Amino acid sequence: MTTDEYLATIDALAVQPFPEVTYVDSSGGGGPGHHVRELQVSRDFWDDDDGQARLEAEAELKACLDDLAARLTTRWGHASVVDLGPYLSAGCEGEPVPEPLDCLSQQVVSMQVWPLPNRGRWLALAIGQADKELPLILFAAVGRASALDLNTSGRS
């Protein structure tokens, strides 16, 4: 896909109503208060003995993320970087973690977040991987502002 096609997907996610029930499909998933899309997925790394294929895939996804982030920054200003470690720890300790933070924290270390002005939502981009042999994934996610303690003006 092209950057413009990714942006069209992001724009649709930003305004799409949240589903009433949780679902997972071939491009991501969603549920009450969130959407997650896999924008780009690398190959797996089961046979990547020297790590070169992973490095190349990571560079490709990072370039795509940087391009998208630059375009979104032009629209909405600079992103905040959100560390997902505390959400992962909380979930592992049995505390409730709002989606999509719970599912993302299991694959992503940090994400870039833009509050969506006057929508009570935020949009995030992140690169994650569930395990070292599995594909790298460029995610786009939309969640309720309350999941990250953002107020409706978009300021935290």
Question: Would you mind describing this structure in some detail?
Answer:
- Strand 2 and strand 3 form a beta hairpin.
- The protein contains 4 helices and 7 strands.
- Strands 1-2-3-7-6-5-4 form a 7-stranded antiparallel β-sheet.
- The protein is an alpha+beta fold and 156 residues long.
- The longest helix has 25 residues.
- 33% of the residues lie in helices and 27% in strands.
- The protein has one domain.
- The radius of gyration is 15 Å and the shape is globular.
Provide a concise account of the structure shown.
This protein is α+β, with helices and mostly antiparallel strands. It is built from four helices and seven strands, in the order H-E-E-E-H-E-H-H-E-E-E.
Task: Provide keyphrases for this structure.
156 residues, seven-stranded antiparallel sheet, 7 strands, 33% helix, 27% strand, disordered C terminus
Determine Rg (CA atoms, Å): 15 Å
SS strand fraction? 25-35%
How many domain units?
1
Q: What can be said about the biggest beta sheet? A: 7 strands, antiparallel
Query: Low-confidence parts, pLDDT < 50 over ≥5 residues?
Result: 151-156
**pLDDT averaged residue by residue:** 92
Q: Give the SSE string.
A: HEEEHEHHEEE
Instruction: Based on Cα principal axes, name the global outline.
Output: globular
Proportion in helices: 25-40%
Give the number of helices.
4
Distance between the termini: 32 Å
Oligomer: single chain
Structural class: alpha+beta
How is the largest sheet built, in terms of strand order?
Answer: 1-2-3-7-6-5-4
